[in-house]
Amino acid sequence: MPTAANAMYNLQLKNAGSRHHVTVAAQAMNATAMRTSHDYVMQGVPIVISIFIIVGLSFVPTSFVVYLVGERSSNAKHLQFCAGVSPEIYWISNYIWDIFNFLLPTSVSICVFFVFQQEAFVREIGAVVMLILMYGLAATPLFYPASFIFSIPYSALIPLL
């Protein structure tokens, strides 16, 4: 393509009566330029992975509310209170159970980081684990008061996301 354009421009210059000419030199693209563009693309991968982890883990504490609303709407919670379970024990046991249930997707996420050798996460794995665990510890009780708004269990899932 550059050779054809060069011939056309030189012909135009010759027809115009000019003694000047155009010279074109073409070289193959450097492998480093291709590698650089690949590196730029790969820099965005940890950001995309972070977004998917955030979205995926946001479903976990939200799903805990479904069971709380179901217990309240079926009067299972009232039955437990009548059987002698104090409200403090009820809520603490729910919280501990929910945290144990949050540990499963957290551990799977950490294993995925190691299996696929995501350097951005594996290099600072302690901080990543603490960040995910702190999210679970903080987000889980945040949804407990919201369970009183809903009376149908699965109607609580989407608005709380």
Describe the structure.
It is a single chain. The chain has helices at 2-15, 31-43, 45-73, 76-82, 87-115, 119-122, 125-143, 157-160. It is mainly alpha-helical. The longest helix has 29 residues, at 45-73. It is elongated and about 105 Å long.
Keywords:
161 residues, mainly alpha, 8 helices, elongated
Quick structural overview:
The chain is an all-alpha fold and 161 residues long. The chain is built from eight helices and no strands.
- Number of continuous helical runs: 8
Largest sheet: none
Structural class: mainly alpha
Instruction: Report the end-to-end length measured between terminal Cα atoms.
Output: 55 Å
How many distinct beta strands?
Answer: 0
Low-pLDDT runs of 5+ residues are none
Oligomerization = single chain
Q: What proportion strand?
A: under 5%
Overall pLDDT level: 86
Give helix and strand order, one letter per element, not per position: HHHHHHHH
Cα radius of gyration in angstroms = 31 Å
Level of helix content?
Answer: over 70%
Apparent shape? elongated
